[in-house]
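User: Just a sanity check before I run the rest of the batch. Below are the structure tokens for the first item. I only need the designed sequence back.
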């Protein structure tokens, strides 16, 4: 049965949840992984949602295994991070979104959904925000720009936003310009500094994220290639164009 299995008890008060599913430029995953590492967040819950592959993930220097999609927590900062080591198949996106959204609603969490917009950048990648429920007021409060053109968020992140909209729940979608072909630490840093930081009320150093861009790219090159080969499974934002 689909469920989120909590591994320990924590006291969280209306937490923000950062979603880090793989997608364009791996921007969401890079941002989520950076938060978990830099803030030394604790393994909190395992996602046992229908459609996710039964694989075991292990880490360097550890013998234990964990599921590929997990939630980490920082009790002091009221912060949750959804970390994924696999792309979520589009055939499982609807079931996955329902599974995760129900649990987040029970926690009264504000989800911050992350998506890369594959287009050329002129200087610092542009960021804009979209919302469901009443979360648009939060975007306005922190001066996060509105979209400059019509677009669409697809993949599992799009399914999560759609599920929140259907249920009338507050959620934020952050979209940033990102490299379509390679991991983009610079775009992930924009997420952290200009979106996640203000909205979640946290401050995390990001210089190391860009300084180690070459190392990050090498470590995730294989996953990026998988995402290119299975583009329909990628979380992404895209313009709708003139004809909709």
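Assistant: Here's the designed sequence for the first item:
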């Amino acid at each position: 049965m689909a469920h989120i299995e909590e591994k320990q008890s924590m006291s969280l008060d209306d937490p923000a949840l950062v979603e880090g599913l793989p997608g364009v430029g791996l921007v969401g995953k890079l941002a989520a992984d950076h938060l978990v590492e830099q803030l030394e967040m604790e393994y909190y819950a395992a996602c046992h949602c229908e459609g996710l592959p039964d694989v075991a993930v292990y880490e360097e220097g550890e013998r234990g295994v964990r599921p590929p999609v997990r939630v980490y927590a920082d009790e002091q900062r009221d912060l949750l991070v959804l970390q994924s080591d696999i792309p979520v198949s589009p055939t499982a996106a609807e079931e996955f979104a329902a599974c995760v959204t129900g649990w987040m609603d029970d926690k009264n969490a504000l989800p911050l959904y992350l998506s890369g917009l594959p287009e050329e950048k002129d200087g610092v990648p542009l960021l804009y925000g979209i919302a469901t429920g009443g979360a648009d007021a939060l975007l306005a409060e922190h001066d996060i720009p509105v979209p400059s053109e019509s677009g669409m968020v697809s993949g599992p992140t799009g399914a999560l936003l759609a599920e929140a909209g259907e249920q009338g729940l507050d959620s934020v979608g952050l979209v940033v310009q990102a490299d379509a072909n390679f991991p983009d630490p610079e775009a992930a840093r924009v997420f952290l500094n200009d979106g996640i930081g203000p909205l979640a009320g946290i401050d995390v150093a990001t210089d190391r994220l860009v300084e180690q861009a070459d190392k990050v790219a090498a470590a995730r090159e294989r996953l990026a290639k998988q995402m290119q080969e299975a583009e329909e499974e990628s979380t992404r934002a895209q313009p709708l164009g003139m004809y909709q």
